[in-house]
Write a structure and sequence with these properties.
Number of domains of chain B: 3
CATH architecture of the largest domain in chain A: Orthogonal Bundle
Shape of chain B: globular
Strand order of the largest sheet of chain B: 1-3-2
Distance between the termini of chain B: 22 Å
CATH topology of the largest domain in chain A: MetI-like fold
Low-confidence stretches of chain B: 1-16
Number of helices of chain B: 14
Oligomer: heterodimer
Helix content of chain B: 55-70%
Largest interface: A-B, 98 and 107 residues
Order of helices and strands of chain B: HHHEEEHHHHHHHHHHH
Number of strands of chain A: 20
CATH superfamily of the largest domain in chain B: MetI-like
CATH architecture of the largest domain in chain B: Orthogonal Bundle
Radius of gyration of chain B: 27 Å
Distance between the termini of chain A: 39 Å
Mean pLDDT of chain A: 85
Largest sheet of chain A: 6 strands, antiparallel
Shape of chain A: elongated
Chain lengths: 494, 353
């Protein structure tokens, strides 16, 4: 109407006013929307936190740059041109290269001193030696049998290259000590360095040399005005060395950048196994079954008893109904703690502590909230329907079953769902009646225990939390309308 | 309401037994049927309410301990005296000696207050502080959310759902999440909201002075129900009233003050009472956040109900716990009555009640 009038009349001021109002409306709606989105973001962030944490490993969580989505830094598997080596002290008999001959060196004790002489030959019971420290000097003749001498050992410090060796049943990573003649090689085992080296009838080329391999973290590095994904090899005092994964054989790039200021290259890396771990840790299926059983059965009790009582209050003109109803409502004010202690003592006498009875039985005797909700709803059901049924000869039970229950179905469902949720989320009652241990308890108590015991494992805690609230959330999403209306029925009329 | 004149044929269907013994008039039968359907509540009322209440009142005057029921003595009002026992000493010294059985409960400047149960005073202080801070915050925020979602912005129903959603999440789960969400170094609240705004990284759950604010923050996650109540109240405000005030040239703020607030004041009253009752019984989050309800650093999260729980089910001192429960009941009752009394001054019933 406004719009039409504005355009029909040629009144400029009117039109301007109209435009102004329209613009304000759009701006106002936009601002409101922004505020609402902001609040929604804040409100949902704990849930986002749960979801993301439950899918991460502890390692991911401890990374200070950890992003919200479960991701791990992408790595590049770098095989360097350098080979892997092992520092090895090779202890072997000393030899001397003397005029093309390999002579064995012996320890000769003379005048309290140890000399290292290489044995040359035996001449007429006299052994001829060459001084290994001074081979140019004249040979020394001594009247000692070579058999009585100890060969001199030498410690040779080697950096042996490691190879993958596979020869018959000798397999593993071994260090190449020496290449011998005739395609034979001498090897050592880095895991048993005290053992003497062993010979294999293979050539060096038969074994595969082990090159230095490592997983390098990829960074987004600005190089000459463009961002490139480079793998960090090492951080130096000024700048850092990077490997370009597209060209790994090139020399490492030395760049003058601060590594801490760089972004890593992230890769999606969720860990759903946290959920199964959490399930095992809290005996999930048993607790789930317990919780579900209690919620279903006590919900039935709550719904049936509240229906009967609400029916009694609304459909029979009983004296003192108002006073009784006020008494019923005023019980809302009574803290359950007052009645809890004597009932606990009675349950204890009955042997009910540690069983589900205290969590189920009382709900078969109606409660104020449910009766209130159902009474409000039943008062809205027209009386003519039960009048008609009565004329047809129906008794009050039949009227309840065939008239009231079908008509009040939404409210009944609401009561059932509310109670189901209340029971599922209840913590204090199961804690008191089933004890603080989690063996035969419900999910809420199990989760609280879990939280206390595994407080350092955030990921498992959050996974357990999600597993606990799965059912309430599902119920809410499937019965959203019933829920949000049910809340309002209880509230409005008061 | 169904009335007497409704069909004499009714009694035919009344139970045969009753019919034989006394000749039931239709009116009588109806009354009997009515009470018959109230039976679950009447039994429940005596079995789970009135009976236990009387038993609890009696227990509160004994030193009943469920582990030593044989040694129970009637000790008159001693439990109540223990709760309210207070000895005041004026001294500048850090340590003062109280009567035997008394320990220091709290200290105001040079006044030292000693009590036979010093924890109960701490618990009362924590509970009241929480009520004073958390209730107005929750009600205000819920009303704000209701006002926001009572507009005609696209997608408003989705936002209602989102704001209500956390209310269906179990309190234990909420406590578990916020235990991490509020952490000082890597909690998301600090990392993504407070630090970027330059507000530092407070240790919400460790610092005693931040305990109540932290619990208030956690509490605001569950205001969905309160919000929906307000929303229903707002939707019940007749639009003619707004139109009339618009004609009078009232701006948004004065419309809110003079039309909206009075019209939804009954809902405010309802939410206030329900909120008060809930706050005085606050338990789950504090229990989960302070392992086994120990109360946290400096007992900064030691709520009255936590104290009651520990006395009753950890130390099994059920006589004393009953006295604590009765004090809680009386306080809730008095506060509720006071709120209802004051309500005649600020609650406006459109029906003219």
């Amino acid at each position: 109407m406004e719009r039409i009038r504005g355009f029909i009349s040629n009144d400029n001021a009117n039109q301007r006013n109209y435009m102004k109002r329209e613009v304000y409306k759009v701006i106002g709606a936009g601002t409101l929307l922004m505020i609402m989105i902001g609040i929604a973001t804040v409100y949902l962030s704990p849930l986002v936190y749960m979801g993301s944490t439950a899918l991460k490993t502890e390692g991911q969580l401890s990374d200070p740059d950890d992003p919200i989505v479960p991701m791990s830094p992408q790595t590049y598997h770098y095989v360097s041109p350098e080979v892997e080596t092992f520092r090895y002290t090779y202890r072997h008999p000393q030899t001397l290269d003397y005029q093309g001959q390999q002579l064995t060196v012996y320890e000769v004790i003379q005048q309290g001193k140890i000399y290292k002489y290489a044995f040359l030959e035996t001449r007429d019971n006299v052994s001829v030696f060459i001084d290994s420290e001074n081979p140019e000097a004249a040979p020394i003749e001594l009247e000692i049998a070579v058999e009585d001498l100890k060969p001199a050992l030498v410690n040779e410090r080697l950096e042996v290259n490691l190879y993958n060796v596979a020869y018959e049943d000798v397999r593993g990573q071994f260090g190449l000590v020496e290449e011998l003649e005739g395609n034979r090689t001498l090897w050592m085992n880095p895991e048993e360095i005290s053992e003497p080296p062993f010979e294999l009838p293979i050539a060096t080329s038969d074994a595969e040399i082990i090159r230095l391999e490592q997983d390098l973290i990829l960074y987004e590095v600005p190089v000459d005005g463009e961002i490139r994904e480079l793998a960090l090899l090492e951080t130096g005092r000024r700048g850092a060395k990077f490997i370009d994964p597209e060209n790994p054989d090139a020399e490492p790039l030395e760049l003058d950048v601060r590594v801490r200021g760089l972004d890593k290259v992230w890769d999606l890396d969720p860990h759903p196994e946290n959920f199964t771990d959490a399930m095992d840790a809290i005996d999930y299926f048993k607790l789930f079954g317990n919780t579900l059983f209690i919620a279903l059965v006590s919900g039935l009790g709550a719904m049936v008893s509240a229906t009967l009582v609400a029916y009694g209050f609304t459909r029979f003109n009983i004296p003192y109904a108002n006073i009784l109803f006020i008494i019923l409502l005023s019980t809302i004010v009574l803290p359950p703690q007052v009645t809890q202690i004597p009932t606990y003592i009675v349950y204890n006498k009955l042997g009910w502590i540690g069983t589900f009875f205290p969590l189920i039985v009382p709900h078969f005797f109606s409660n104020a909230y449910n009766v209130f909700l159902l009474r409000q709803y039943m008062m809205g059901i027209p009386l003519d329907m039960d009048e008609a049924a009565r004329v047809d000869g129906a008794n009050p039970f039949q009227i309840l079953w065939y008239v009231i229950v079908p008509a009040a179905r939404p409210a009944l469902v609401a009561v059932y769902l509310f109670h189901f949720l209340f029971s599922w989320n209840d913590f204090q009652q199961p804690l008191i009646y089933l004890g603080g241990g989690s063996e035969n308890s419900v999910l809420a108590v199990g989760l609280a225990n879990f939280t206390r015991i595994y407080s350092s494992q955030q990921n498992l805690m959050m996974a357990a939390g999600i597993l606990t609230m799965l059912v309430p959330l599902a119920v809410f999403f499937f019965a959203q309308r019933i829920f949000m209306q049910g809340v309002v029925i209880t509230g409005v009329e008061k | 309401m169904a009335t007497v004149q409704s069909a004499p044929t009714t009694q035919v269907q009344a139970p045969a037994v009753e019919e034989k013994r006394i000749k039931l008039t239709p009116r009588r039968a109806q009354i009997l049927w009515g009470y018959f359907f109230l039976i679950p509540w009447i039994i429940g009322f005596f079995l789970f309410l009135l009976g236990p209440m009387i038993a609890s009142l009696y227990l509160s005057m004994t030193d009943y301990n469920i582990q030593r029921p044989g040694e129970t003595k009637f000790i008159d009002t001693d439990n109540y005296e223990k709760i309210f026992s207070l000895q005041v000493i004026r001294s500048d010294a850090d340590e003062v000696t109280f009567k035997s059985g008394y320990t220091e409960a709290f200290r105001i400047a040079s006044l030292h207050f000693g009590s036979r149960d010093h924890e109960v005073w701490k618990a009362i202080q924590v509970t009241l502080t929480f009520a004073v801070i958390s209730l107005p915050v929750n009600l205000g925020l819920a009303l704000f959310f209701a006002l926001l979602t009572n507009t005609k912005v696209p997608g408003v129903r989705l936002f209602r759902t989102i704001y209500y959603l956390p209310s269906v999440i179990p309190s234990v789960v909420a406590a578990t999440v916020f235990q991490q969400f509020l952490r000082g170094q890597d909690g998301w609240l600090n990392v993504y909201l407070l630090s970027p705004l330059g507000l530092g990284s407070p240790e919400w759950l460790q610092e005693p002075s931040l305990a109540v604010p932290a619990l208030t923050i956690i509490g605001t996650w569950g205001i969905g129900t309160t919000m929906l109540m307000f929303l229903a109240g707002l939707q019940n405000v007749p639009t003619e009233l707004y139109e009339a005030s618009q004609v009078d040239g009232a701006n948004y703020w004065s419309r809110f003050r003079n039309v909206t607030l009075p019209m939804i004041s009954p809902v405010i009253l309802y939410n206030l009472v329900i909120g008060l009752i809930g706050t005085f019984q606050y338990f789950v989050v504090a229990y989960v956040l302070t392992p086994r309800g120990a109360g946290g650093n400096d007992l900064s999260m030691y709520f009255y109900n936590l104290h009651l729980y520990r006395e009753a089910y950890v130390f099994f001192d059920m006589g004393y716990a009953s006295a604590l429960a009765w004090i809680l009941f009386i306080v809730v009752l008095i506060v509720t009555i006071l709120v209802f009394r004051s309500s005649s001054r600020w609650v406006f019933y459109a029906g003219g009640k």
